[in-house]
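Think of the structure tokens as a kind of shorthand, similar to the way a musician reads notation: each symbol stands for something richer, in this case the local conformation of the backbone. In the example below we present two proteins back to back. Begin with the first one, reading the sequence and then the tokens, and try to describe in your own words what changes along the chain.
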Amino acid sequence: MSDLPASPDARRATPDDAEVVAQLLHDFNTEFDTPTPGTAVLTERLHSLLAESDTIAYLAGEPAVGVALVTLRSNVWYDGPVALLDELYVAPDQRGHGLGTAMINLLFADAEALGVSAIEINVDSEDVDAQRFYERHGFSGVNPDTGERAFSYSLEL
């Protein structure tokens, strides 16, 4: 990556961007020592997923050095879909230049246009930088009705 910050502009990815999205997602998992199926598998999956309306990816920078991956699902508690921000990643040497914010702002604009009722994200308890980032953008780690700390559980099958 260059020493110059990439453009803070973000755009919605298309199926033609599947390989770029896949590489950035692979880089994210690699940076944080998380298993990844590799870019070839991710590219194949993303070609079809990005062609559907319930998977959205955003790219930031030119060339792209940031990615956000969002999935939409229906939910009985809301009129509109719920968006899950599955991943948000900016290459380490490009952080702090507004790329993450550009992708979040584009997500907010798309969410409004799509009638999204809520946006959810899971953040690791030790990742205080991510927590601060999301809190700056209006996300909360507490239940708004009770004020209790929110937790997320998962089970991989």
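Once you have a description of the first chain, move to the second and do the same.
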Amino acid sequence: MTTLTSPRLAGVLDRLFAQASAAVEETQLAVADLSDGERTRLMRSRTDYRALYGRLNNVPLAVSRETGALLYMLARGTRARSIVEFGTSFGISTLHLAAALRDNGGGRLITSEFEQSKVVRAWDNLVAGGLDDLVEIREGDALETLRTGLPDAIDLVLLDGAKALYPDILDLVESRLKPGAFVVADNADYSPDYLARVRSPANGYISTPFGEDVELSMRLG
């Protein structure tokens, strides 16, 4: 048995995934008055994204079960000890990554979330899953919270916050990525500048789409 499949954590994850499924209609209603073009503009904006995420402050913006399993496997396969996450939401992805740290023998996961109510929910979920000792949640703008105090060597990064900021967050962590470190970007299609960067071998990555909405990149040596 792994931590991920233990009754304690599996029960928490089942509850959270069910909650995320039940919130689909609420999520749609929160942006129903926006045109498709306006939604896309807000998703890609470097300045107006807070207007969008402010509408979604009470709903879980969760990774899929498949992406959660991918995160766990990548962290276990690389024997990760240092992980950085951009965008905590209710903590589903955080739980998968922290479970991998537990099964790797320990480590540290630094995650950032600017919605205070989501920080509270995520922390409660980490406590319920028995993984809070491995995680530091930094509340606020990730461009500030992740600017300092990061590990010298990072094994894995998850980008799942405001899409337009993906290149900026990568700037903050890139010099610390170990050769072979993975960067997982959810909904990366909303950040064309990020995709162009990681898909160019000249920039030191090999990258490929995974599933319908994830970009999986590896830092070259």
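Compare your description with these statements about the second chain. The chain is about 45% helix and 20% strand.
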